[in-house]
Amino acid sequence: MPSARKPMRYGHSEGHTEVCFDDTGSCIVTCGSDGDVRIWENLDDDDPKSINVGEKAYSCALKNGRLITAVSNNTVQIHTFPEGAPDGILTRFTMHANHVTFSSGGTKIAAGSSDFMIKVVEVTDSSKQKTFRGHEAPVLSLSFDPKDVYLASASCDGSVRVWKIEDQTCTTSWQLLQKCNDVINAKSICRLGWQPGTGKLLAVPVDKVVKLYRRETWDSQLDLSDASITLPLNVVAWSPCGQYLAAGSVDGSIVVWNVETQECIERMKHEKNYSICGLAWHPKYKQVAYTDTEGNLGLLENVGVVEKPKDKVASAVAKDYNDLFDGDDDDYFNGDMVEPQSSPNPAADEDDDGDLMLTSGRPRRAIIDEDDNSLDIGLIKASSSLLEKEEDGDDQTGGFSALPPSSTQQHFYDGPMPTPKQRPFQSGSTPAHLMHRFMVWNSVGIIRCYNDEQDNAIDVEFHDTSVHHATHLPNSLNHTMADLSAEAILLACEGTEELASKLHCIHFGSWDANKEWTVDMPKDEDIEAICLGQGWAACATSAFLVRVFTVGGVQREIFSLPGPVVSMAGHGEQLMIIYHRGTGFDGDQCLGVQLMELGKKKRQILHGDPLSLTRKSYLVWVGFSAEGTPCYVDSEGIVRMLNRGLGNTWIPVCNTREQCKGKSDHYWVVGIHENPQQLRCIPCKGSRFPPTLPRPAVAILPFQLPYCQVTTEKGQMEEQYWRSVVFQNHVDYLSKNGYEFDESAKNQAVKEQQELLMKLFALSCKLEREFRCVELADLMAPNVVSLAIKYASRSRRINLAQRLSQLAVEKATELATAQGDEEEEEEEEEEDFRKHLSAGYSSSATEWGQLPVRNVQQDQEVEDAEETDACEEAEETPEVHKQRPNPFSKGVTSAEVTTPKSVLGSSSSQGRVNPFKVSSNKKDPVVPSANVLDTMSRYSKKTSLSGSRAVNKQNPPVIKPLIPKPKSKQASATSFFQPRTLTPNPSEKAVEEREGKAVEEREGKAVEDGEGKAGNESHEVKVTAQENTENRRPRTGFQMWLEENRANILTDNPDLNEAEVIKEGMSRFRMLTSEERMVWTEKAKGGAVNGLAEDKKRKRPTADEGEGRRSQEEKSEDTNASKKSKPLDQSTNGRLSAFAFKQS
Amino acid sequence: MEPAEVEFLAEKELVTIVPNFSLDRIHLIGGDLGPFNPGLPVEVPVWLAINLKQRQKCRLIPPEWMDVGKLEEIRDQERKEDTFTPMPSPYYMELTKLLLNYASDNIPKADEIRTLVKDTWDTRMAKLRLSADSFVRQQEAHAKLDNLTLMEINTTGTFLTQALDHMYKLRTNLQPGESAHSQDF
């Protein structure tokens, strides 16, 4: 579109809003439903003069320094303009007036009211009134004939009337509009208008067309219409020259026609499609001001003017015309003159369109200008005929209707329009023109700037007063940019004519007495963005340069940017710069991002990659998460974060607009934390940024990745899983760069991820999606895969279990090969894959910081049930591990701090627990474990604990703690071994045990007792004799069976209650073969009858039967009766021996 | 119960503060508090909020109802209705007193709030006396105490029950035949 449109701005509160220009066009005047008349110097005027005229202003008109308004107390008032002093009441109605308008001379006004009356009043003498009665409904709008003979009016009764002012009679009346009973119900407010100057035409917006009526004959001369108009037109306005007619519709379209040619020269759509209710032409320039029913004010500039800088011919043509125009003579001659000139131009068609546009934009000459459109014969004909008609003044209808439809085709450029480039900004700052503003609000503190009459000052406040006390600085240099870190305050101002642009740093972290330094930029180089990192400061200037300083003021690197800077952010040694890569189109920005590391190893991570932004949005916040991951927020409220796990791509992690209650509410982001996942922002009601007073409160938003179907369980878990993965990336980054990080938090995240995978796995199992199960298992850690195998085998999915064990083997071999060199102390290099498998398990477990010590866990649980050793407790509550904040959030770290000691500190803090916490373990043993997931969570808790315990007791861990292989192996070996044996020679047993286990897994399900177990069995048989002191209650076979299979039933049907479970169990039990049932009855009898040294196997209904491993074994015994016992004292012994072993 | 005891109970109410220090979660017998992150609002019991405020370790964010507009509405409602209206907090009086005494600099329009709460309190106390009076007069057996806060009940509770006891005794003594026992009292 040729016209330049500025973004709309807030003018008044919601409701009907009108607009007009003053006589000279120096200011825009609006009135709105807030009862104010505002006088705007221009559209960017942020401090318009407001005149309160009443509770509600319905209409205003301005002429000769008089401002008349129709207000809600049913009067029409005069105010002086521009002073705004009340100058009396012109007239009153019994209802409020809907429209007031000046006559062309400005001596009279007309007002139409909701009480069906129209009054015409002399401005100077309000006693001279004329009343027009005849409308049968509220009057919508009025228009004075420029010759002061007629007055046109539209009303809710559907009629448009023309009155003779002299005798107040109705000259003519058309029934054009839809009838309604009140203005608010009217489809259109039907602002009609006489053509200025001659008053030859009366334009009436009727539905989707503008009807033009001819003076005196009152016949409908022609209709102006356009395909882009889809809803009724609300308002029309003539350009002061009478050449053009603008119309605004209820859906926000604005269309401008050249009336003579009926050609649509301008189409514009309101950015939010609000109903246009006010239109006004600038008295001199080609500007149209418009207002909508939401109170916004907009401005179209250069209406109908096309600038075609490429087209020299066009300008030449225009020049020729300027010369030729003095004599308003023969237009054909002009046409002939032009043709030879323009024909050599190869770009014929388009350029001609351009010519047309350009020339038609010239006021008062359009008719003749038109002829330079040399190639369009039809148009020439049309315009020539028009000209004739103009001259004749008669009989025009034929001529117009003869116009070929092609003449109204679009003649302007409607391709993508370049977007104005967004200005540089500081993250976390509010606009610079505000008197009280935030210069920065980040995770360290707040810098406020006060710039009013009495004071020009900067207030610095720290969230954590231990960093530094609050300070108050004078702002004599008029700093506009600021950044704040835990060691310095950085301020910058743009240059003025006398003073150069300055960078000012207050390095309060300095230990010497000189805490401040200032650097002047070279002449004509203005600072546009600044940021602080750790030990350095940087500024980007208008010369496309980035200058890096040390925090003490030494100049460091300097490099060029490919484009104007938008914003920059620093964190640690990372520097992120966002700049304009080029020009965006259609509201989009075209930004690029550079991410560099300014530490010892200087390198660029993002090399000016394009920055992904939501359509038609711009950047509003750039920064790093507290953990050091680059993030940014766009104006549509989408928060994106760098996903280092996926080749440094950007992933949207939150949509703040989804959280907003109102349409115009926003969240102003101040910080992002990955652990815990927090988006810290300030809710702003009805604005994009908060005011400084009252002091805004920070709110916390959760993150959510935009995954599909998050309402379903599957989608939700997928989202959670990937979110957890994304938000854990920083750990890898930190560890890779040698920073301290929170081990326990990482473990927790890993645990959470594995749990989610397991849940997803179970869900897919339930849905019979076995392929998906395998895919999920592929994402799992090896030790969790074994759980998945168990789950699969227990839910009788043999095929799945087999595939999973294949997968496990693959994983294990992968790991084994990957870590082959690390695993030097592999105990036995057997070819049997089982070895690999178990090796893989243990090694991977260490890698994840988890040891597969399930049996230890069993023992501990039993132990917990009996003894309550406080220290033991303390170690056994891993949930209370503290999430240590990242070093940066406290601002303590440098790369050098990452010594083992610091981690030791954190690991000792893991010992800091809640002394009041009731251990959940104590209650656990009674409840039979419902399903694998329970087991798993307990399991992983325990294992992560044992990992951390290893950390505590063994060598001081480092940043990447790979716990020495042999130890972990021993730990796992002993743990496998303990519960079963009394002998203090664990290693061979462990091997045996492992083999037995591996066999089970290879078979994919529980099978009959392998030979490997036979030995164990004999132990246990003996052992059973010892445990007979415990009371047994008699049970039936079914009860025992149910005990065993309850977990299965529950997993299959998680929502069953107790009774239903029993019922389901009954039916399943009945489905067993009679032999099987016999076995169970036998067992039950054995249990019931058996006194002491019975050789039969019994079940021990204690805690450990809930354990996953255990229950698997039990399951294996579904088919044949088998041993089942484990005396407490024995396991305790085993544990003690394991402990002793570990210590040694 | 003493007013001090009621106040003690009120101190368990949670309020939001913005700490200016950093501290991990602290484990107390009544539950865990924190973690405290500078600049980040966190909910703590009133007693801790006041303690921190006195040591200038935090900024207090007044409860949502502690707002002139809302309190005016509550007061007007209280005046309009004959019965007791529900209060924004069961400890509104205690909280107002505590927070305004110790953190008035963080509460906008503290004086107005104090007046409004006092107005509401007075209205309620008047209602309470009135209803106690009619309760005694009409010799009712029971009365509903809906929407009364602990502090309000405590202002009349002891006195009213004792008075009723006495009246009961006096009444029973009035009955003939029972006079012999009167010496017991």
Automatic annotation (TrEMBL), chain A:
Keywords on record: DNA-binding, Nucleus, Repeat, WD repeat
> Which organism does this sequence originate in?
Lepidothrix coronata (blue-crowned manakin)
Instruction: Kindly provide the name given to this protein in its UniProt entry.
Output: WD repeat and HMG-box DNA-binding protein 1
| Entry's localization field | Nucleus, Nucleoplasm
The answer to keyword Transit peptide applying to this record is no
GO biological process, any: DNA-templated DNA replication
Q: Which Pfam families match?
A: Ctf4_C, HMG_WDHD1, Mcl1_mid, WD40_WDHD1_1st
Matches recorded under Gene3D superfamilies: High mobility group box domain, YVTN repeat-like/Quinoprotein amine dehydrogenase
Chain spans, region Disordered: 329-359, 386-429, 814-836, 848-1039, 1079-1144
Q: Which residues bind DNA?
A: 1031-1085
Query: Bias category Acidic residues: which stretches?
Result: 820-831, 860-877
Cellular component terms per the entry's GO annotation: nuclear replication fork; nucleoplasm
Q: Which regions are flagged for Polar residues bias?
A: 891-912, 932-955, 970-986
Listed PROSITE patterns:
HMG_BOX_2, WD_REPEATS_1, WD_REPEATS_2, WD_REPEATS_REGION
Function according to Swiss-Prot or TrEMBL: Core replisome component that acts as a replication initiation factor. Binds directly to the CMG complex and functions as a hub to recruit additional proteins to the replication fork.
State any single GO MF term: DNA binding
Q: Which residues form the HMG box domain?
A: 1031-1085
TrEMBL record, chain B:
The UniProt entry, under Gene3D superfamilies, shows:
1.20.58.1020, 3.40.5.50
What residue stretches are annotated with the GINS subunit domain? 65-169
Q: Does the keyword Nucleus apply?
A: yes
From the Swiss-Prot or TrEMBL record, state where the protein is found: Nucleus
Report the domain of life of the source organism.
Answer: Eukaryota
Q: Does the keyword Nucleus apply?
A: yes
Q: Name all DNA replication complex GINS protein PSF2 N-terminal domain ranges.
A: 2-61
Sorted alphabetically, which CDD domains does this protein's record hold? Answer: GINS_A_psf2, GINS_B_Psf2
Chief place of localization: nucleus
Q: Which GO terms describe its cellular component?
A: CMG complex; GINS complex
Tell me the Gene Ontology biological-process terms attached to this UniProt entry. Answer: DNA replication; double-strand break repair via break-induced replication
> Keywords for this entry?
DNA replication, Nucleus
To which protein family does this belong?
Belongs to the GINS2/PSF2 family.
Q: Which function does this protein serve?
A: Required for correct functioning of the GINS complex, a complex that plays an essential role in the initiation of DNA replication, and progression of DNA replication forks. GINS complex is a core component of CDC45-MCM-GINS (CMG) helicase, the molecular machine that unwinds template DNA during replication, and around which the replisome is built.
Task: Specify the protein name.
Answer: GINS complex subunit 2
Organism encoding this protein: Neopipo cinnamomea
Tell me the lineage of the source organism.
Eukaryota, Metazoa, Chordata, Craniata, Vertebrata
